Structure formats: structure tokens, C-alpha cells
Amino acid sequence: MNQRENTFSVERPEDSLGFLLWQVTNLWQREIKKALEQYGLTHSQFVLMASIHWLTIHNKEVTQILLSNHTKIDPMTTSTVLRTLQQKDLIQRQEHLTDTRAKTVGLTNEGKKIIKKAVLTVETFDIDFFSALDSKTTDFSKNLQTLLLPK
């Protein structure tokens, strides 16, 4: 190896946390995509629908901005994905009763049917995927949550 050309701070690629996270994320997303194909949903569509379902059963008035904040998907992408879900008749959007700038979002009956099945599929997949961590899944989850905290 030419030392003068080496700009890396790690000895091996697997010593780079960012590179490892990127690899694991790609593997996980690729497999999630396969699991969701049977429902005709992309991962982003699933995340937004699952979040609508979660927030609704926890008595939240679901707006596009709440969804964007909840999922960490930027507002423009959230709107675009929701538009696609609306065209598929899986969600409905309507004007907010008191805030004319906002739209409320809810699942249609078909959307509820599909997301309930898809959530079970994804949760089963996640349990299997992360099972390699054994008893370390709780710590792993806490570490990921720490990374999401605002700085």
C-alpha cells in the first residue's frame, strides 16, 4: 500500500462504522423490499402506512407534517409517497378542520387490511434478521436511538 496516498483513518474497511452501517442498511433494505413485494408496497410506503396506523391507534390526529417528523422522511418525499398511496386507494387525505395549510391522513379499509398483514411480515423479518445479535438487541436499539437524538 502506498502510505502517501492513504487518506483513511482505519486499517480495514470493516473498521469503519459508517461503512458497516451502510452495508448492513443496504442488506436489510434489500431483504425488506423482497418481503414487501407481496403487498405491492415500497419500503417508504410501508413506513408511512405503518406510521399512520401506529399514530391512529395511539389517538393522534395524523397530519403530513406529523408523519414527516415521526418517520424522519422529508416533507416533500412524504407528500409524494402519500400521493401515490392515495392513488392506490390505500390512504385518504383531506383538509384539516382547523388548519387550512395542513392535511389529515388516514388509512382506507383496504389500507388497514394490507398494513396489518405487512406489519406482521416486517416484524417477523426483523426478529429473524436481528436474531444474530442474540441478547444484544436491546443495547443495539438503545444505541440507534441515541444516534437519532438531536445534537
Helix content: 55-70%
Hey, roughly how much beta strand do the residues contain?
5-15%
Number of helices: 6
Largest sheet: 2 strands, antiparallel
* Mean of residue pLDDT values: 91
SS class: mainly alpha
What oligomeric state do these chains adopt?
A: single chain
Structure characterization notes:
This protein is mainly alpha-helical and about 150 residues long. The protein has a domain at about 30-130: Arc Repressor Mutant, subunit A. The protein contains 6 helices and 2 strands; from the N terminus they run H-H-H-H-E-E-H-H. The protein has helices spanning about 15-35, 45-55, 65-70, 75-85, 110-130, 135-150; strands spanning about 90-95, 105. A two-stranded antiparallel ribbon has the order 1-2. A hairpin with a 7-residue loop joins strand 1 (about 90-95) and strand 2. The chain is globular, with a radius of gyration of 19 Å.
Give a short overview:
It is built from six helices and two strands; from the N terminus they run H-H-H-H-E-E-H-H.
Salient structural properties:
mainly alpha, Arc Repressor Mutant, subunit A, 2 strands
